[in-house]
Amino acid sequence: MPGIRTASLIGRMDRSSRGDGPLSAPKLPAMRVHVVSDVHGRADALAAAGEGADAFVCLGDLILFIDYHDHGRGIMGDLFGAEAVGRMIELRNAQRFDEAREWSRTLWASLGGDRTQIVEAAIRRQYEALFAAFPTPTYLTFGNVDLPHLYPEYLRDGVTLLDGQTTTIGGLRFGFVGGGLQTPMRTPYEIDDDAFAAKVAAVGEVDVLCCHIPPHIPELVYDIEARRFERGSVAILEAIHATRPRYVLFGHVHQPLTASLEIDGTRCVNVGHFHARGTPFVLEW
Ligand SMILES: [Mn+2]
């Protein structure tokens, strides 16, 4: 399948039970997990992304609020049209955040009605389609562009939310840390550094650490298209040095300068912008 990137943990695991002799059959991976992040409304591609996977992992950002490539799509595009959204993106990219907020205020004022209610109704429609499309089993955490208080309405059997928590998938311990850190963008789910670090600490030692945001490494947090540094986490970076997970998987930075690198034997991977790619990152062991 084009666009699929696969990482294998085979060779780092004890495979003795499957036979290592020269005459034994070629080793087949026993477990295959598909990982996505930054879904941003791509309910249409979720089911296919789960095909052939034993488990599906989603690292958050389900909502499509603003479509940076197709300004007429997403909640803002639906409400205000492509031109108005384009203006806001322009201001944000120029880091003129106060003006961007002011522009957004003007747009909302022109609409009338209760802004919170209008947005929430639009988000509910997106969540309904997205949660219905998740394969089973799915393990997910929050992105910074998510509304945690709505999740209880949409979670169902086989779709498990984890945030500051761990679970075992195919014998490996997976930890999940959701949300983003505070920025001038004021996206919906940003938490302070201490609260974020507490979640990383609560997860502790794991084989695979799944987060929405990257560890704080310049080349992982720099977005070459937006031409700015997103926020990465120092707490995740410290956890890598202290606990050495095999993998740290994350998203958040849609067009990263570097998508994958190794720190102290830990492979750090941006699993990709699912909204644009429509294909998952594959982890096999
Ligand atoms: Mn995102």
Automatic annotation (TrEMBL):
GO MF terms, alphabetically ordered: hydrolase activity
Which superkingdom heads the taxonomic lineage of this protein's source?
A: Bacteria
Which intervals hold domain Calcineurin-like phosphoesterase? 31-256
One Pfam family here: Metallophos
Q: What is the recorded name of this protein?
A: Metallophosphoesterase
Question: Which InterPro entries has this protein been placed in?
Answer: Calcineurin-like_PHP (IPR004843), Metallo-depent_PP-like (IPR029052)
> Which residues lie within the region annotated Disordered?
1-24
